[in-house]
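Q: Predict the bound structure with magnesium ion.
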Amino acid sequence: MIEATYSSSSALLIAKGIGKRFGGLSALDQVSLSIPSGSIYGLIGPNGAGKTTLFNVLTGIYRADEGTFELDGRSLTHCRSDQICTLGIARTFQNIRLFGNMTAIENVMVGRHVRTHSGILGAILRLPSQRTEEQAMITRAQELLNFVGIGQHANQVARQLPYGDQRRLEIARALATDPKLLALDEPAAGMNDTETATLGRLLQKIKESGVTILLIEHDVKLVMGLCDRVAVLEYGRLIAEGKPANVKNDPRVIAAYLGTEVS
Amino acid sequence: MDIFLQQVINGLVQGSLYALVALGYTMVYGIIELVNFAHGEVVMVGALVGLSVIERMAARGDTGWGVIAIGVLVAIPSCMALGLGIERIAYRPLRKAPRLAPLISAIGVSIALQQLAALIWGRNYLHYPDVLANPQFHIGGAVITQVQLVILGITGILMLGTWVIVQKTALGRAMRASAQNPSVAGLMGVNVDRIIASTFLMGSGLAAVAGVLVGTYYGVGNHTMGFMLGLKAFTAAVLGGIGSLWGAMLGGLLLGVIENLGAGYLSSLTNGAIGSNYSDVLAFLMLIGVLIFRPSGLMGERGSEKV
Amino acid sequence: MKSKVWLGLLSLALIIALPFGTDLILGRSWVRLLDFALLYAMLALGLNIVVGYAGLLDLGYVAFYAVGAYLYAMLASPHLGMHWPLWALLPMGALVAASFGALLGAPTLGLRGDYLAIVTMGFGEIIRIFLRNLNVTNGPAGIDLIDPIQIGGFSFGANHSLLGWDLPGIYSYYFLFIILTALIILISHRLSDSRIGRAWSAIREDEIAAKSSGLNTRHLKLMAFAMGAAFGGVSGVLFAGFQGFISPESFTMGESIMILCMVVLGGMGHISGVIMGAILLAILPEAFRPLSQFQQATFGHVWLDPANLRMLMFAIALIVVMIIRPEGLWPSPVHRRELHANDSEAGSSQKAAL
Ligand SMILES: Nc1ncnc2c1ncn2[C@@H]1O[C@H](COP(=O)(O)OP(=O)(O)OP(=O)(O)O)[C@@H](O)[C@H]1O
Ligand SMILES: [Mg+2]
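A: Predicted complex:
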């Protein structure tokens, strides 16, 4: 078993011995990770390796059978999805899950929900505080749409956006929650080379703004070029972890990707 | 007379009827994850069709279990056709629609059947004709009637039969595969539409038997009888763990017994403040309780066979 | 801008003139029907918050109507000898109904929507059992001689006259109901266009994505449920005062279904559609009356009970609308897009494949 060896003082997210089973299938087995603050951390592995399952555990959609994880020293193991989001992990989905019939800007405004406060009474009475907050939400949402590069589509229905823009909208919605950790599940899937390159620059920009990124991606070139560290999953186990250059040459990783047995 | 034993016996009989109806809910839920709100009404139609047949024969002077059997034999295909029709018209077109749509359509079917029945059979309570001698047997201070014994026997046989079909036949395998993962089952050559239809067919057949038995046992039928019966059978299915065959049976029996004991003791325990009028409330409270404390039911989650 | 003002004034004039015109052309009983239509509109708007906004199916909505109505009937009638004023009972009705709503919704919030539907359906029946069997509610006989609604010294039940036009209670109630309906419309509208309303839409669209975006879905669903119930309670209070007599039989499952039908038929989530649905369906029984008169005259017997026929039509409408026009007759722009989502692109697959 490979343990991530990173000084925990600079680690944003620490997961220890995560296990998840579906019936007889062990989708995650003793997975331990430590994601350095301010980095882009890659998570790769063949299909069915358990990458998405790990995301689902870390965002409270599945409950881990074993193990614990914490963000910034606060345990999230038993938190609900919405609490985890409030505490700083936002995500996107491998199969895009937007609020398809709401407009792009409304989608982002929903992401803003957790950082705003006005309630039913404020809405009914249209209190001044509620109106300023609403205005601030709109402004912030538009900023985020501009940031990810789809500002011109603010009032378009999410479902009708082109595929690449939907992926970016999902990122904007996630960013709207002011996350510490942004978890992206194959954001480049289905994108062409130009789009992927633009996405790479976007991720770089997000990192520079101080948000740590956990990135699942099959595009090895993107991962190797972008990530500060990479972890490799296979059959639910962590088989390698480290700097991209080292991981790339790890024989077990090469074997995993070529589909041969590792002795 | 041993009131406790008597209530347990009555409870088991009533509970086995719940179980029979609960099977229909559980099988359909297992396969398309829809609460078939109209299932209670299928039972009601079974009861009323049976009643019409039995009435006709009784008028000619026929008596005995043969009359009931013929009632059942006519009710079964009627309910099966109804079940198939419901699935085809109201559910299948909505299988991929947003969640709310099939639910609304299901409640529509349920009300439509009630009203149709009211137009056909009228709004009054109809009496099942007396065609059975119904001898009684004494066991340890309590009484069990022949009708009760027959209900227990038939229910047991049907439960077992259903289990055999689901577990041991090719159809059952296909059902279980479709329940687990319809798209994969489809890819493997299972005709998912046919399987779903078969599930409705089985559930409706069981509902028909349950309907005639309910009518025979309680002696009355009415266009609204399916509502509470359905609600309770659903409670039984949830109590046992929806999607689980044995859960449906366990839940049904448990609910029946608790309800009867409740009805028997509620008023004496509360000095008559709460009478047996409230036994329906008891079932409802149980439903709420299960949903709060164990939404997966007694036999849900682990070790459950998903139909 | 200017044309908008004119349009507003014109509608206002129409709304004021409506009962007078109805009285002249169709007769008094139709004015009464108008009042009922407004009560139903309020009810339907309440249910619309639950079903249309948050996407939760409530099949026992009439229970909250009953809660409001019985609250008023018990505290403003000779039955218990209490005669509380409307200004106390109206908010109380809203509050008590909302608490019932929250209490009832709570156990099912973490579960699939089907369970909520069943539990609400059960509750709708259970509350009727209580109403029929309790002494404080006077059992099956119900409560009568309920105080007419009174504000200040003005009794809505009494006859008034204006400019020589004789105005019985149904006129006063009409204007009271119009004002309250307008208020409920305003609230519905403001809610839908707010932080909470957006959150409800998000939950309706994709609950998992909503949770992962930080929405406390339990809390939000509970709010929708309580809010809808509150509207039901308010309508109930008004109903009791207006009718002067209530019994458990006013609050059947059939009523719940009819209100649901108003929402679904009119267009879930769309205020104007829902109001149209309510008015249409409230007036429908009147349209059926000639049918039974015709049967009586022709056969000397009513073969097809119009009440059954009407419910049958509602039920069939629910099915047909879901299958061919799920967005209702007059949909909101958003819902039209949504309910046909599966016909067109697969861009945002709602499948559970995570
Ligand atoms: N809800 C579930 N129920 C049963 N099995 C599941 C469930 N979710 C995931 N699995 C199984 O767990 C394993 C890991 O799946 P996961 O989706 O995490 O893989 P992945 O690494 O994200 O693959 P991909 O690159 O294809 O997205 C797979 O075998 C999958 O079938
Ligand atoms: Mg994946």
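A: Chain B has one domain: 11-230.
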